[in-house]
Every structure is written in C-alpha cells, then in structure tokens.
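Tutorial sheet, problem 5. The three components below are modelled jointly, 1006 residues in total.
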Amino acid sequence: MTVRTAELLMGIATFLISIGLMWNVYSDGLTIGWVEGRGPGAGMWPFWLSLGMALASVATIVRWFQGKTPESQSLDPYIHPETLFLVIVSALSLLVMLVLMNIIGTYLTLMIFMLFYVRFLGKHGWGMTMSFVLGAPIFVYLLFEVALTKYLPKGWPIFEEGFLWIDNYRWEYFY
Amino acid sequence: MEAILIPLGAGLLQAFEPLNLFMIFAGCLAGLFVGCMPGLGSVNGVAILLPVTFLVPPTAAIIFLAALYYGAMYGGAISSITLGIPGASTAVATVFDGRPMAQSGKADKALMAAAIASFIGGTVSIVLFTLFAPPLAAFALKFGPQEEFALMLLAFATFIGLGGDDIPKTIFSILLGLVMAAIGFDIISGQPRMIFFDMVEFQRGIGFLVLAIGIYGIGEMLWTLESTKGQVQMHSVNITWARFKENLREIKLYINSTWVGSFLGFFVGTLPAAGATPASLMSYGLSKTFSKDPDSFGKGNVAGVAAPEAANNAASTGSMLPMITLGIPGSPTTAILLGGMIIWGLRPGPLLFTESPDFVWGLIGSMYVANVATVLLNLALIPVFIRVLAMPFTLLTPIIFMLCVLGVFATTDRMFDTWIMLILGVCGYLLRKLNYPVAPAVLAIVLGPLAERSLRQSLISSQGDVTTFITRPISLTCVILALLLISYPLIQKMMRRRKMADAS
Amino acid sequence: MRFVKTVAVSALALAVSAPAALAEWQLRKPVEFIIMAGTGGGADQIARLLQGLIEKKGLSSRPFIPINKPGGSGAEALRYLQDKAGDDHTVMMTLNSFYTTPIIQEELGVDVTTFTPIGLMAMDTFLLWVHTDRDDITDLDSYVAAVKGAGLDWKVGGTGSGQEDSVLTAMMEAAFEYDVTYIPFPGGGTVAKNLIGNQIDSTVNNPSEQMEFYRAGSSKPLVQFTGERMAAFPDVPTAKELDVDIEYYMQRSVNGPPGMSPEAVAFYTDLFGELFASQEWQDFCTSDGLTCDNFLNGDDLAAFHATQVEAHKKLIEQVGADAITGE
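Model answer (structure tokens):
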C-alpha cells in the first residue's frame, strides 16, 4: 500500500468514525442542542465536535483529490515491507502480552516476553537473556508489589495460588 | 516580614537535623525513581510514604513527603527526555523537545536544562508561597466557573501554532482529543455518554495518561523501530568536566523561558481547578509563540524543555497552596495527603496556618531544602541517566513496553486501560505516519473536560446568558488576553511584511 | 542446611497452627479497598483514614489498598464488585449512591441487596450552608424568603446531578415550593470552595466538607436535616423542629461482593468493629459531625440497606428523576 492510498483510506476511516460518534451521541438520546436557560446540552459538545472531525476529514479527502498534500502524491510504501515484520511483531507481542497477563499473570508473562525479545529478536547471549528473564519480574515485584502496594494482575486462580505461595514468604519473614 | 522570617528559619533548621536530612535524601531518591517510571508519579509515591509515617515523627514524615514530591516532579522529566515517554502527566510537554534533543546526542543538555529550570521554578514558587500565601488564596477563591473557562480559552490560545503544517489534520487532532475527553459519565446532566459496546468501564472516561503513554510510549516505539529498521543507534554522550561547564554557560539560552514558566506555573497551579499539566502546556505554548525562532520548537530547542519543566515544578508547589490554606486538594497527590494529615492529628483548612504553625512552616522549610537536594542529586545522576541511551535497542524496547503496560495499569488499577493504551498507540502510529500531528490531541484531552465543564457550569449559573464571560473582570481580562494571543501571530506576520516592504 | 531447617521449622509451625487457621480465617493477599467516589471526597477521606488506622494498629496481616472507582456516580464500582462475586479479598466503602445509582441507571443490572453487608461505620449528615456575608439570612424563614426573592438566580452548588445532595435539593424545592439553579461540581471540596468564594449562594454539604470554613467563620449552617441536634452543632435547629419534614442521612458502610464466605465476613466484621470502637475513629466522628452510635452489621445492616433502597425509590419517584438528572 502506498502512502497515497493510505492517506485516502485514513481520510475515509476518520470520516466514518466521526459520523459513527455523532450517531452514537444522537442515538443515546442526549440533548445535542442548546437548552434554554441552561446552556449546552449533554450531547452538544461531543456531537458538534464530531461533526467538525467529519468536516476536517472531508477537507483531507478533498485535498487528496486536488493533490495538495505531499502525502497525496507520495508513491512510497506506507510501511516498508522490510520493517513491516518488525512493527507487526512488536504490536502483536504487546497484544499477546496483555492476553497472557489475564491468564498466567504478570510475572510469568514478563518472563516469556523477555525471553522472546532478548533471545529471539535481539539474539543476545543466554547470560543476558536470563538476567532479563529473572531481573524483570523481580524488579517489578519489588517496585510495584512491595514498595507501591499495587496488586498486579495474577491471572487464573491456579497461577494466583502459585504466586501467593511465594509471596507468603515475604509476609512471614519480613514484616 | 519578621512574622514570616522567624518561623521560616525555624522550619529550615528543622530540616537540617540528621534524621530529617536523611529523610530528605531518601525521599528525593525514592521520588526520582518513582517519578521516572512512565505513568508513575508523586501520587504513587505517597503509597511509600504512609508506612514510613508510622515509623518516624510527623515532622520527619512531612519532610520525607516534601522530598518525595519534588523528586517525583524532577523524575518525570527524565523519562520524557531519555525514553521519550512522559514520566508523569505533567511532563508531557517536556517530550516535545526533550526527545529530539536526546536523539541528536544532547540528552545531557536537555536533562541539565530540565533540572535547572525545575530548580528555578520550584524556588520562585516557594518564595512566592512564603510571602503571599494568604492573599493568593483569597484570589484563588475569586475563580468561579466563568474564570476557569476564560483561563481554558487562554490555554488554548497559547497553542496556536503548535500544530503541524496541515491545517485540516491539526483540527482533526484537536477535535478528536476534545471528543475523547467527553467519553464517560457527565456530572452536569448525570447521564453516561459514549459508552461503547455498553462497557461500564467507559463511564470512567479515557484518562489522559492512557492516551499520552499510548501515543508516546507505544506509538513512538513503533515509529522508531520502523524508521531505523531496527538498527537504532542512539547517541550516547560522554560527560566531561568541560562539557558540563559548557552546558552551564548555555543557561542563558533558556533563562527567559524559565522565568516566564515559573511565574505562570505558580499562578496556574494555585487555582484549584487547573494544576501542573495545563500550566506546563501553557508555558510551552507561550515560550514558542514569543520565541525568536518558533520553528525550532519541537525539533530540539532547549527552551522547549526548560519552559514546561519550570512551570510544572512551580505549579506543583503552587497546588500545595489551596490545600494548606483552604483544605482543598488541588491535585490528586495532595488529595491523598489529606488522609495522612488527619492521622497526624492535623485538620487541613483555613485555620491550619494559625493552629499548626510548626507543621506548615516545617513543610515550607523542607520544601526549600528538598528543592536544593533534588537539583544536586539530579545533576550528579545525569551520567547515570544517559547510560540508558547507550543500551541496545533490543534490550530497551521490552523494558519500555513493560513499563508502559504496568505504568498504565498502576494509574487506575484496571487492565481495561492497558487495552485502550495499545489501541490508541497503534492508531497514533498509523496517523502520525500520515503527518497527523498528535500533540494537539494530547493537549485537548487535558483541557477538554475542564473547558466543557466550566463552560456549562457558567452558562447554567447565568441561565444561558453568554455575556457572563465578559461582565466579570477577571474573566474579561483572560478573554482579552486570549484574543490578543490568538491574533499575535497574524500581527507578527503583518509587521514582518511591512518591514520587508520598507526594506525593499 | 539452614534452608532445610527453615523449611522444617515452618512446616512444623504450619502443622501446629493448622487447627487454629481453620478456626480463624486469615487474609492471604492484599485487600482491594474500593472507594465508589473520586480522590479527596468524603468517602475517600474516610477510606484512607481507615486504611491508615488499620496499618497503624497492625490489625491486618496484609495491607488494604484503596482503589478509587469513581466512574458514573459509582456505577463502575458497583459493577466491579458485582463481578467479583465470591471474592474474599475485596471490600467497598459506600455512600448513598450505593442506593441511588442502581435506581437511576437501571440498565446497570446491579442489585445492592445481594451484596455482603459488613459494617456501618457512620451516618453522615447534611446541613444547609450559606456564606457568613449573607447578613440578611439568619434562619430558615429568611433563607426561604431570600431564595424566593432571587428565583432562578439563586445558585445551589452540589456534587453532580443524581448525587445525594441533588436529591436533597429536589426535596427542599418540593417542600418550600421554590425553584433554584443547581450547579454540579466535581466533589464536595470544590463545592465548599465555591461557596466561600461566593460563586454559589447555598449548598447542602456534609459537615466534614464545611467544618474548617465554619470554624474559620466564613460559612454558617442554617438547619440540619437530622432527627436530633448533633453535638457539633448544638445551636442549629433541625428541620423537624421547624415543622419541615425532611430527614436525610448519608450512610458510610463497608460492603463486600455477593457470596463472600462467612469466615471472611466474620473477619472483616471484627476488623471494622474494632476500628469503629477505636478512640481515633470516635474522635473523628465527633469532630466531623458524623453519627457513630451503632455498629450495624450482618442481618441488621442488610435490613437497613433494604429499607434504604425502598426509601430512595420512593424519594426519586416523588421528586422525579428529571429533577435529579437535570435535563
């Protein structure tokens, strides 16, 4: 896909999103007009601003047809094929990370994430890899769980039990 | 004057007792550390404070607290500059120029400018605080919804020219931010708005940090990965004594922006509605508008780092004012502090100054000392911070991703926001590749809720009469200033044209 | 070797303490202490004070972590707690939006009577406040006269359409037959500040939100909406004394998700009961005008919630949902 095509598609997408937002506000039954003696209704701000977004999108599309912006004339690829892999892998790894955090909990996820990044993407040695695989969860545990008393996601009960079994030593011996 | 100097002296002396001095350095370090984690700020740091509170006497606890507060404020700039991710919401504007500076091998200069500007901002603010607390508090009370809205107009006016060259795309970005800010429960009408897919989590709305970390953390990382094809070579700098002295001499490049930022920041910070984030953004906008070389902003102008940093430190100190003089929390951190103060047997309110002078002056005194301690620590640690930039990208990326996810989770304790962050990050990346400016959306989501709410409150109270904004003196002044600011670039252009005409 | 010893000792300790553990339920992880309001408000202050006291007194082996879920007048918090059914490590600090929000937002699908009642920490009260500059207003009659004279120019500040104080404001409008302009602000502290700054004319704040301004002489209470005069305000008449039938309280209770185990309920009830009886809490109640006479718990609190839900349904029907939601 060239930048030129992407520009048009993005213009259309933002236009549709703006219209969708307007419809969302309108169909919720929020007052989109001026209420006598009270000023703007609850829906006025989002509705008319969304209309502005739609108009701005139209302007971008019009300028595309006129060929006024550099993007509408550029025939470069939108995302270079050679880097597409890297970008997709990064975005997907984050997606997988968030999904896994809900299943196996924060700490195991971090270990897998580090292993993947440092060893398989970064091609670093095992020494470096292991220090990240072990270092990251320990650092996070000490900072978030111990110092800031945040209870990070622990995933399914069985994994939470595993965490609690270890965490229990902290309460037993340090407090 | 004596009435101020004597208790202030006593407060300062307190800070120099061994235990208290230790608390200052411990607090500064803890604050710096927490503050430089993306998403974590002084609000989270207060969690560390509470257990400490029960171990040491209240005065030491207050001192620890002041140090923590300052440390976190300074710390926010560190990740803004070295990682390009705002360490706290107040440090977003620091990214605009701090990140390009780091990328061109000037991270040390940016960090130094941030530290020095923060120090000046903090100091100016405490001095003003010491001298004028009661009259300023009285002035802050004069700020009703009308004045708040006029102030927001002024804030928007400072951003004219902050967008890109493509006007429809800039407008789209601003409006998108404003609309996103409206998601959630509307307190004015008591109705939920834009609850997509009936997910109750949307009632809370989309937080500013979620957007900022999504765009600057995730989006920026994807962008860097792509533009460098994964072969990122960050410029590391070797710090030498000569370079340090050279950096010191460069203070004159940003000293003016720093002064402006300091006074503006303090003033905006004292107003209960506003706070440090709008203050830093306004300071950045002003600094750019009145700069001799506005085009260099956003590309690594050191004044663009100093201006918001001076303002956010000044504002953070300023936001203590409504809490101490009125008992009204001006920021979430101070809100949480209120709880701690009650346990210490203190009642925050208009009588705190007269009933617990030791506490108030101890706090003010330790703010002076903590400010000095933090700037020293910060300057000493610059070589450590910039080592981050020398790390291979394949090691830095997973760390940044991890901190983004956990930082966002920590601000609201819900996974929902991390999903939103990822979506916004990817969308931000795709939009940015097509030259949509993202900064206006970030600004808009900060100011949007304040602007909409104060507009509607004003109109309800005037029963729909729009002249309410120009019949009140403070509000009128802000409106006029805003109009002047908006027209300033046009006037400037006309002047230039006339000059050119004269010359030819 | 040492490690083995430690393990052996702890295994032994475990074996010895096992029967005791069965008898007394223990926390196994930090407790999420949900607050159904934002930071800085009355509920938040109370929750953070309680958290501090728990820590200070060492009442719990695991920390209580305060988490604010202010979205949608507590809608977010209520749904969160409902989805946590059966969880023994989540409790919530509630206020009256515990009753009103599920009534106003029916689509939420939350029935608070299914939640596990733990303990009623306090009954918060409401007073009618005006600025001390208003010399013309000295009692309820002169207040009503002033409001009627001003008509819609009379501005009442509150914490949001659909919140308790908007219910109370609507009740007063009905009782005195006047109409005022109600301006919502985010949080009771902001309302108080706007009253002191003369941006609004009157408000029905909780005592804790106005206490310091009252002591500093910038605001004055005209009437209290309680059954009897509070110790903190001996000279302020109650509405009932003035033949106005308005009595309204804000409950501040701690509740758990539906289906909490009985052992956990017993544990939390003991814990909050001990806090309730503590000197610090009772002092706070006195100074902030909270009523803390009875620690309702168990079935008593469940019955209390049930009557409150019914009472609020009736109230909202009476004053009309429109009067509360503004538009």
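Marking note: The mean pLDDT of chain A is 90. Full credit if you identified this.
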